[in-house]
C-alpha cells in the first residue's frame, strides 16, 4: 500500500525543549518515525509542511496544505493536524472535492508524552485506508474514522465525539 | 460503533513477573486498557479467554475462540492472538464462514515493552472496521489489514509481510 | 532510613493538560510516586507546598520552604525545586545554617516526559543521604551531589555543571 | 567525578528479542546509555563483561569481575549485576578487601520495561559515591546504599530489604 502523509504540526508532534522550558512544534517527523518503523507493508511519502500549532494557521497555510494534497504522489493521504482548527481545514478540503481518500488525524496529547493516543489515532487512519473506501475527506480520532463533519472536538472533555 | 474484542493472549499481552524473572501471559486485559481508554466513540464488549502463548494453543482452545466469535454481541470482532499460530486459527475461522467482520491482530513485542507496535496493530483493526467492509476474516499487522491468508509472518525478520 | 521530601513544583512535576493544551505544575506528588514505590527501605514524609514554576517564586514562598525544612520530622531532607531559581533558594537555605542534611534536586525535563533524568537526579539525593554526610545544603543534579554553590545551571546547554 | 562501571549483565540489561520471543542479556550497555547521557559531571569508564543472567555465573566469571575491579582506572566502581546471586559475588569481592569504593547494583525489572526502578538503583550508587565514603563493598537497591551483607533479596516479595 502507498500512502502520502502530510505532517502539518499540531499537538501530535510537540516536543519539550529543555533550554526554553516549553513544548514546541518541530518541523521534522520524529513523532511519526516510530510508527512508520513498524509499517513494513506501506511505502510512505512524507511531507513536513506548515509545522504550526493549528491555532496559528493562516488561510495561506491551508492553501499550502490543499496544494500538498493535490500534488501528492498517492490517492491515499493522511494529514496530521492540530486539533483546535482541524474542523476548519478539513471542511475547506472537503469542499474542494479532490478525487482522493483524505484522512485527517492528530492527538490531544503529544506523541512524546503519551505514545498510545497519538499512535492509535494515526493507525486508525492506516486501517481505514486498507479498506476500499470512497473518495472523500475523513477524520480519524478516538476510536472511529468518519466524514470530517461528523466528529467534533468537545473542548470541555478534550475528546472528539460523533455528532448525533 | 460497537466492537467485541476477544483477547486470547499472545505476545501482545505479555508482562514481566519480577518474582519469577520472566514474561507471562496474563488472563486480564491490562495491555488493552490504555488503548480502550482513548476510544471515546466505541462501545466495547471484551472477552478474555484462553490466555496462552499461541504455540501452546490446542484444537479445543481454537474451538473456544470460534464459539466466542459466534456468540459475540456484535458483528465487528477483533481477536488478539499470538503471532506464531495466528495463521492456523484465522484459517480455521475463515473456513467457518461466520457472517461477521472478524479481524485478527497481535504484536511482535509486548505492549508492556513497546506501546507503539501493539497499539498500531490493534488500532488498524479499529480503523478498518470503521469502513464498510464485507464479512470475512482479516488480519491487521504492520501497516495493513487484509484477508487473513495474505499476510504471513516472516520468522527471520520478525515481520508480517504481504504474500506476493 | 527516614527522609522528608519537600516538593515545591518546578519542571520535575510538570504534566500536560490536554484541555488547556499546556504543561502545568500540579500540587500533587504523582511525578514522585513511581520512584517512591520502589523505595522499600525508606520511610518518607512528603510535603507538597508552593507548587510553582520556580521563576514565579516569591520571597514568601522561599520563607515557606525554609519553615517546612525546619519543621520537617527528619534530619535528611530532599527538596524538589524548579531549575531556574534553585540557586537562589538553596543559597538562602544554606545561609540559615539549619542543622540538617538538605539536598535540592529537580529536572530539566518533566518526569512525565522523560522518566530517566528526573529519576536519576532524585535518586542521587537518596544515595547521597545513605552515606554519612555532614549537615549542609547540597544539590543533586546530572551525576553528582555537591555543595549547592558549586553546581550551576548552564542555560545555553541546559545542564547543571560543576564550577571550576 | 570519575567512575568505572562494570556491567556484568542481569535483569537490569535484559531486552526483548522479537524473533526469538524472549528476553535476552545483551553484551552491550544500551540499558545504561540513557542514564549516562544525563551524567554531565561524570567521566565514565564502562566495561561490559560476563553478560549473563547471574544464575548462570561461574566461579570463573566471578574471578573475571574481581580482576576487572582491580584493574579499573578509578577508585569508585559500580557493578551492575543480576539480583539472584549478587549476594555471592559481592561477598566474594568484600573478602578480597580491595582498596576501592565498590557499589553493586541491578534491577528487579529490566530497564527496557521499567526505566524507573533500574535508573533509581543505579543513580543511588552515583549519589553515594558523591559523598566521602570509606573503601568497602556496598549494594545500592530500593532506596538505600549499605554494606553488601546488610541488604538481602526477599524472593517472595521481589524486594531487597535491610536485614534487622
Structure overview:
The structure is a homotetramer of 164-residue chains. With 164 residues, chain A is an alpha/beta fold. Chain A is built from four helices and ten strands, in the order βββαβαβαβαββββ. Chain A has helices at residues 30-36, 59-70, 86-95, 115-130; strands at residues 2-9, 15-17, 22-24, 43-52, 76-80, 101-105, 136-141, 144-147, 151-154, 159-162. In chain A, the strands form three sheets. Chain A has a six-stranded mixed sheet with strand order 4-1-5-6-7-8, with helices on both faces. Chain A binds chain B through residues 1, 34-35, 38-42, 115-117, 119-133, 140, 142-146, 151, 157, 159-162, and chain B through 1, 34-35, 38-42, 115-117, 119-133, 140, 142-146, 151, 157, 159-162.
Sequence-ordered SSE layout with sheet pairings:
Four copies of one chain form a homotetramer.
Chain A: E1 2-9, E2 15-17, E3 22-24, H1 30-36, E4 43-52, H2 59-70, E5 76-80, H3 86-95, E6 101-105, H4 115-130, E7 136-141, E8 144-147, E9 151-154, E10 159-162
Parallel strand pairs in A: 1-4, 1-5, 5-6, 6-7
Antiparallel strand pairs in A: 2-3, 7-8, 9-10
Features:
alpha/beta, two-stranded antiparallel sheet, 10 strands, 27% helix
